[in-house]
Amino acid sequence: MSIVSQFTNAAKKAETKKSEKKFTKDNHQLMHKLPKFKFWKQVAILVPGLILISVAAHYLVPTKALDKPPVSDDIKRFVQIQNVKKYYLLTTRADKQIELRTGGNLSWRLHNPGKLVHGAFTRSMGALGSDGKYAVFSTYNAGARALQDLLFESGQGYKELTVLGAMKKFASLEDGYKPKEYAKVMAKAVGVKVTTPMAKLTQEQQKKFVESVKMYELYKPGKIYLFKDQKDFKKNGW
Length: 238
Known about the structure:
This protein is 50% helix and 11% strand.
């Protein structure tokens, strides 16, 4: 048996037994069996064998199947509201599929983590419409951007206030909130006091603030049902 064949068999044997230690030992034994030719003759014999080992290892070592890439948010975005009721939302997506969202809570169904009331501001941020009160955004990220812009960038009067002042404006007693409690939770989440001006928060703190609003609003996913087109929905939807 040739030296190349022995090296190849050693690679296969090592892979079969999954024993790197034994594979190394076998190779050392083979090295000692090589005839003591001059240096360049030894190289001429060894190099092809090492190349074959590399090739064999590449094809013999099992590789983990790659997961399918996630579906892009761009094609999942809402492009049209078909129907919206208290406990469900029916929309057309960018990929032409019909998406029915049920259960969960309102901020999840509407892609509106801050439960922003629909109006001139949400329209300027790309909202598609509303459920009669709250804005419906095309994606969760669009809704989150609108919330962050409202609190920290817009001219809606939040960034000039303290955390407590902003929460009194954002989540008023009239809407059934407890703004002082809300403000304490937000301030603790980002590591500041309720008297800290909103404008003093860093970019990282702003992101944490937005995420904390989402959690405070009890953002909870429900179920999503997809239909390939309107005809499929009419046939298989309720």
